[in-house]
Amino acid sequence: MDPNKYISQGHGISHRFGGLTDPYGAEKNACVVLLQVPFDKTSTYQKGSSEGPEALIEASRNMELYDIETGSEVFLNGIYTASPIACGTTEEMLLETYKAAHHYIEEGKFVVTLGGEHTISYGAIKAHAEKYAPLTILQFDAHADLQPSYEDNPWSHASVMSRVKELPNISKTVSVGIRSLSSEELPYLAKENTFFAHDIFETDLWMDQALSLLSGNVYITFDLDAFDSAIMPSTGTPEPGGLQWNPTLKFLKMVAAKTNLVGFDVVELCPNPYNIAPDYLAAKLVYKLLSYKFQQTAK
User: Fold this and answer.
1) Helix 121-131 × helix 90-106 angle, to 10°
2) What's phi and psi for 204, nearest 5 deg?
3) Residue 17 backbone phi and psi in degrees, to 5
4) Which of 98, 191, 202, 233 is deepest in the core (most CB within 10 A)?
5) What gap in Å lies between CA 272 and CA 277, rounded to an integer?
6) Are 147 and 187 in contact (CB under 8 A)?
């Protein structure tokens, strides 16, 4: 038995995903880089998602790093937790997020971006779209986020998917879990690529249909309010009637197995110090997605 293999077990090092120590948290050798973007300037209901990346990473230090489902330990590929991207304005944040994601993508890393409000996804998606064109976006969300502009701000979290669709290398967007939108968004909604929560909660048959729409390279943007508010109350804009854990993982596993998943983000965790379970759910989601991705890579 190699004792160094288990150096990361226990709480490990603070401010590192999984508490990982070197070599598993080393920038040079890691296959995965986590970008933290603790930005929350345009949230319109409850603020606090700027604390989401830190809460997710702290919760991750309490995970067992062996994944039962895949029989794997994805952390052995190396997961590096980059320093938070701190900016005062939306424009600065988007630029710095894009630059950081672009840098690590060019270094051959698999980049995971942690928000913060959903607006942060634009910078990461832009970098991935330039590298992996044509790129299909798989959006998990309670909201369409297709406002052309919200409260006179075209970079609002409620407008992020409108801005993403304007990127030249995006082939299509497929949306899952939508259950809230305004009439102003209807002209911009691709209903044929949208799987509303009320249509999919009783069956898994939609999964094959959604999978058939995912062509080329795939990037996942996962707004945690896609989950039902009973299991994910810690978001800025919780919505009832959302996705459940096991069916969501079933679909994500299919996506990782059948497409070329090139990156993802997890956003809108608004931590509540009196209920840490949602923080752990978010951390586990990140680790499960990485386990699915790298299980396929290892084959």
Assistant:
1) 40
2) -105, 5
3) -60, 130
4) 98
5) 9
6) no
Name the one residue in this structure whose structure tokens are 């160094």.
4
- pTM of the model as a whole: 0.94
Q: Is the predicted pLDDT of residue 5 greater than 70, yes or no?
A: no
- Rounded Cα–Cα distance for residues 267 and 36 (Å): 10
Distance CA 70, CA 43 (A): 36
pLDDT at residue 1, rounded to an integer? 34
Residue of 67, 93, 81, 91 lying closest to 298 (CA atoms): 67
The two tokens of residue 225 are: 């309010």
CB atoms within 10 A of CB 268: 31
| Tokens matching residue 22 | 């070197």
Q: 65 with 18: CB under 8 angstroms? A: yes
The DSSP element (H or E) to which 280 belongs, if any, is helix 277-298
CB 54 within 8 Å of CB 36 = yes
